[in-house]
Specification:
With 263 residues, the chain is α+β, with helices and mostly antiparallel strands. It contains nine helices and seven strands.
């Protein structure tokens, strides 16, 4: 509330936010349950905003004021702090842990770790050289130089395995094989908003890493065709050839076809 009052001069607004933070929960039975625990209500409309405001002062402003030697990136409650050496990182981690405890927060024991960003310049050996951040997986990867075309070891990102699993879970949820559209056009119209979102986010870096996801989508579309058209029910190869013909005739039907990712 101290942070809210710093930015919200209207007393009536602060009063309502304070009441909202301490309000009871209405259960399905109609019974009111007093608030349990601390913090903002889970699923609350402005909980993310208040959490960001709190963390701005608990972490961001504090780092900028007291630790000028580090650079950092934070999104909601996920953060990366860049340090110059292992000793520097251990010192920063200790200070951040003390700061979080002082603010009533706690670092996640399993997710908090020191990572060595190994590449062609940093060649030492450390046990942990990769991490997840915002759905991307960062690790040493072979890259091609834009200047001379030669390969080198860089530290780069691509869609993470957990993100691929979430996309595949969404595809299973669609149950494509049993969709009742009269043609594949209906499936494309139904799926394209999701495909566009996945590609626009995860396709920014090493988009070809998403090809394994779209190969599974291709298989689901073939199964749908075998169920929809009698002539393909007993011939898997003909069903695949049919889908290839559809892509040649309508290359813009699916969003990932438009940008040249795997069918």
């Amino acid at each position: 509330m101290s942070a809210v009052e710093k930015h919200v001069p209207e007393k009536w607004a602060c009063m309502y936010i304070k009441r909202w933070l301490s309000m009871p929960v209405l259960l399905k039975s109609g019974q009111l349950q007093p608030k349990q625990g601390k913090g903002t209500p889970q699923g609350g409309v402005i909980s993310p905003l208040l959490a960001n405001l709190f963390l701005h002062y608990a972490l961001d402003a504090w780092l900028e004021k007291t630790n000028l030697t580090v650079k950092f990136a934070r999104y909601a409650d996920d953060a990366i702090i860049h340090c110059r050496s292992k000793a520097h990182a251990e010192w920063a981690l200790k200070r951040v842990n003390e700061r979080m405890l002082g603010c009533g927060l706690e670092l996640h024991k399993d997710k908090t770790k020191l990572v060595y960003c190994k590449d062609y310049r940093r060649k030492e050996n450390y046990p942990i050289v990769k991490f997840d951040f915002l759905g991307y997986f960062f690790q040493p990867r072979t890259s091609k130089s834009k200047k001379d075309g030669k390969l080198f070891l860089g530290f780069d990102c691509a869609i993470s395995i957990s993100s691929k699993k979430r996309i595949l879970a969404k595809l299973r949820e669609f149950n494509i094989t049993y969709l009742t559209f009269k043609s594949i056009v209906g499936i494309a119209q139904n799926l394209n908003p999701y495909i566009r979102g996945w590609v626009n986010y995860f396709g920014k870096f090493r988009g070809y890493e998403m090809n394994s996801v779209f190969q599974i989508l291709r298989r689901r579309l073939v199964f749908w065709a075998r169920k929809r058209y009698k002539r393909y029910r007993r011939n898997l190869n003909k069903a695949y050839k049919w889908l290839d013909r559809v892509r040649m005739q309508f290359p813009n039907l699916f969003y990932h076809w438009q940008i040249g990712l795997s069918s």
